[in-house]
Amino acid sequence: MTSMKNEKGYALVTVLLMIVVFMVISLSFMGQSFNSVKQNKVVETNYQSVALAEMGVSYYRLAIRNAYLTNQSAVMTQVDYMVKTNSNNGVKRSNDYYLQQTISLMKQAIQSSLDSEKSIVEMDQSETAFKIDDVIISSEIDSSEITIDFTSKGMKDEEESNLKAQMVIPINSIDISNDAGGGTSTSNELPDFDDIPKPEGVSSECRSASVIYSSCEQVLVEGSADFDGNGNGLGGKLIYTTGSLVLSGNYNKMDNMKIHSDGSFSIMKNMNSAKNVIIESKDATSFGGQLRMDSSKLYSAGIMSVDDHLTLSNNSFTYVGGSASITKHLTISTNSKMCVAGDLEASQLKIYGNLFVKGSVKGKLMSGQPVYVNDSDFVKNCGSASSSDVLTIEWGDTKDRVDYQY
């Protein structure tokens, strides 16, 4: 009897040991399973952060290309101005000199355009975004290429993946030809924004910003100027600034006026019924109200914006070296012309005269058709005959020489 009881005790111990062994094995499998799920989640999050970084590279590559294309006309205008100025002063420069000037100006223009781009773009999901960082725009000495290096950071939850990328922009060649060899010139050139000469012998009282409404026929400001109040009915004056120029009020019914600005030019309110007026700005122009021109000319080397209607009538001409934006209606009457080197946007367009555009046109077309032109046709239709030095820039295509460094 005693022997049988002992055997029952051994069986119980064996069963308990088996239970413990199976529990240990089960817990081990469960731990491995949970660890595998956790690892998969980490791998998936890391993959998503890499995908976001690649999305950032594509986003910034497009931004660089757009900045390069939209600034070509403005850069060419600035270099062309250098060429004309040096030519008029009897200074001869090599094509390589102007190539380096073009590269320098394009680098500045691209930098300015990229500064306005978002550096961080967030997705719909929380804590999901990509960030553009460490942007370096450079060029080697005597090189015809602009190199842009940047880092794209993909961020998903607490994971971050970095991609270092590089783009290359080549300026293929620059040519300056001169057809001043006698006879009639058949070449055209775009505006140089120097049709209005800088006045000489201006008295000290007419160099003051407070005399714009006085009897001074010529007003010269060395630097920038900001004139307060309205200037309705101004006539027979020349206003010249070597910096930017801001006219803060309404300037309606101006007649026989010449206005020049080496920098940007702005009229904060309306400029209606401007007749026989010439305005030239070597930078951007903006109008805070309506702009209605009659037998007048407006030359803007940079972009132009009008916060109301723009109307050109009776042989008026407007030249825009960048893009143009009109909040309301654009009307170009018969015998009037507008040339836009970039894109054009207006709520409605009524074209009875001529509209030449190198970029795109956005807005409801009510009458007529814009004429889309390339570089040479733009110069032909929007320039004027000249026998001086003619600048030609062959812009290269951006190279997708992107080096991914994970």
Please explain how this structure is put together:
This protein is an alpha/beta fold and 406 residues long. The protein has 2 domains: 149 residues, no CATH class; 181 residues. It has 4 helices and 27 strands. The strands form 4 sheets. Strands 7, 9, 11, 12, 14, 15, 17, 18, 20, 22 and 24 form an 11-stranded parallel sheet that branches. A 9-stranded parallel sheet has the order 6-8-10-13-16-19-21-23-25, covered by helices on one side. A hairpin with a 5-residue loop joins strand 1 and strand 2. Helix 1 packs across helix 3 and helix 2 runs antiparallel to helix 3. The longest helix has 69 residues.
Share of residues in helices: 25-40%
Number of DSSP-assigned strands: 27
Major sheet, described briefly?
11 strands, parallel
Broad shape: elongated
Structural class: alpha/beta
Work out the count of structural domains. Answer: 2
- Given as residue ranges, the uncertain stretches (5+ residues, pLDDT < 50) are 36-45, 180-185
- Radius of gyration from the alpha-carbon trace, in angstroms: 33 Å
| Strand residue percentage | 35-45%
What is the straight-line distance between the termini? 77 Å
- How would you state the average pLDDT, rounded? 84
Number of helices: 4
